[in-house]
Every structure is written in structure tokens, then in C-alpha cells.
Amino acid sequence: MSDVLLEIDLPGIKPFKKGKVRNVFDLDDSLLIVASDRISAFDYIMPNGIPDKGAILTQISLFWFDFTKQIVRNHIIESNVDNYPPQLQPFKKQLNKRSVIGKKARLIPVECVVRGYLSGSGWKEYQKNQSICGLKLPAGLKESAKLPEAIFTPTTKAETGHDQNITFAEVIDLVGKSTADFIKDKTLAVYQACADFADKRGIILADTKFEFGFDDGEIILIDEILTPDSSRFWPKDLYKIGQAQPSYDKQFVRDYLESINWDKEPPAPVLPPEVVAKTREKYLEAFTRLTGRQAL
Questions:
Q1: Which among 71, 180, 241, 268 could disulfide-bond with 172, CB atoms 3.0 to 4.6 Å apart, if both were Cys?
Q2: What is the pLDDT of residue 38?
């Protein structure tokens, strides 16, 4: 098992933004996006990470970006460190497999959430209102039920705190009708193509989220896509309607934190070795089943 990379240190390369998992660096006409092995739960970053997590997430994303490029263009410029510009060559070992160079797109401030199944916050909202983001759903649906068709349930793009659900009419108010129509149509098209593919690999893609940006006036897909951090992937053979599902994500981390009755206030507790190992195993299983590749 490889070492855990928690901090991305690239002396001389201008930082652009640091998220819970990824660090972004400014290369003037493009961005270097590096996925660390940090893991967060309940809005806090854990003190220890998951070995290879950043590489696994990056490689899954690259697989899907390639798979969906006929549906919508994306921001990827380069992902092979051997082809990175000279100033990044000293950091090849740190960047290998876990980084991409992407276009410097102007972010569209909407999280494009798409749901094919009733779970998570969508299930909670349905129980209260029988709707999600203003979309009325059939009565009597159970937790984890497959929806009659995938639905676009956007949220705000919050810099801090939680994103808030918004209606499609509010998306139009935010970004204009043509942009709103485009990101909705592409979100649903990408989801359906990838959900159909994942289904053949024994995985249910319950829901996911995308981000889009403008590149020279054209809307492209940016950020990461269809990773266990941004999606709910469920093993098809274990699927049972009417309950929460086992999933290929932070489930072991969340379950552990609930089991020790952590008050969800800092400092976050250190994850024990068995939780780290099981979580890494789930991320790797998702990678292998989806991509068909045995190694990163």
C-alpha cells in the first residue's frame, strides 16, 4: 500500500484554490488540479487519509470524461505527467495518476444534481413534500426506489456550508434560459449514458452531480465526474428497495463516526486502520468494476 498524500506542496507553482480533497494551481492559461488522499465526512476533513484515494478518483474521472466526450466537451487538456510543462517536471512523482491539467473555464454557479433513485436528501425532501426541487413525484415511493425517469434537481454552488436545493425556474433566473436548458439536457444525457454503462458492470448509479463552465463561449463539463465522492454507486446484487443501500464511497467512515458518537465538531477523530483499509478497498472495487482495469 502506498503512502498517504495529505498535503500537495509544489514550491514555485501558484496556488489557485484548496478544497477538501483537491488542490488547484494556476498555470496562467490553464489549471493544474491535484487530488490528495484527504477524506471528509460530515463537512470535516479527517486527520488521516485513504491511501491512493486521489489517484483512484482521478482515474475514474478520466475514464468517464473519455466515455462522455461525444455527449459534451470537457476541460481536460492533459493527464500524462510526462507531457506536463517543464516547471511541473520536478513534481512528477507527486502528481502521477492523481492530477490533470484542465481548461480555465468560467464556472456556472449551479451544482447540476441528477437523481435516478430516491435517496439521501432527496428521500428526506420527498417524505416532507412528495417532491424534490419543486418537481412533484408519484405518491407511495419507498426509500431507494427507482424513479420513473431521472430528474434534474439542481442546488446552489455554496462556497461554505451546504448547497441549497433550487427549482429549475431559479436556475433560469441565475444563468439565463439557454444556459439552464443546456446544462439540464447535458446533465440528464450524461447521467443516462453512464448509468446504463454502470448497470452492465453490476453497479447502480443512484445519483450524481456535475459542474459546467464557459470556455470561449462554449459550455463544457469541468471538475470531477462520476466518482464515489460525487455520486452514489450501489452494488446491483445487494440492492433492496425500502432501505438505505451499501455503497462504494465513505460508508465505512460515516458508519465508524456514528458508532463512536462523535459530536461532529472539531477536532475530527483519527480513523482506525481497519476503517481506512475497508474504505480504500471500496474505492478500488468501484474503480475496477467500472473501468475494467485491475491496476491504477
A1: 180
A2: 97
Tally the residues of the chain. Answer: 296
Fold of 106-238: D-amino Acid Aminotransferase; Chain A, domain 1 (3.30.470)
pTM reported for the whole predicted model: 0.94
Report how far residue 235's alpha carbon sits from residue 246's, in angstroms, rounded to the nearest whole number. 7
pLDDT at 58 over 80: yes
Whole-angstrom CA distances from 265 to 43, 97, 181, 189, 261 are 10, 33, 40, 39, 11
Task: Supply 2's cell numbers.
Answer: 502506498
3-state helix/strand/coil string of 117-145:
ECCHHHHHHHHHHCEECCEECCCCCCCCC
Q: Which fold has domain 1-104?
A: Phosphorylase Kinase; domain 1 (3.30.200)
- Residue 270: count other Cβ atoms within 10 Å of its Cβ: 11
Residue 98 confidence (pLDDT):
98
Question: Any idea what DSSP says for residue 9?
Answer: -
Cα–Cα distance for residue pair 16/144, rounded to 1 Å: 38
Per DSSP, what are the bridge partners of residue 26? 14, 31
H-type helices in 201-270, by residue range? 251-259
CATH 3.30.200.20, the chain: domain bounds: 1-104
Q: Which amino acid is at 216?
A: D
pLDDT tens for 215-239 read 999 999 999 999 999 999 999 999 9
What is the Cα–Cα distance from 91 to 114, expressed in whole angstroms? Answer: 36
Question: pLDDT grade, residue 3 (50/70/90)?
Answer: confident
Query: What confidence category does residue 249 fall into, taking pLDDT thresholds of 50, 70 and 90?
Result: confident
214, three cell numbers: 464557459
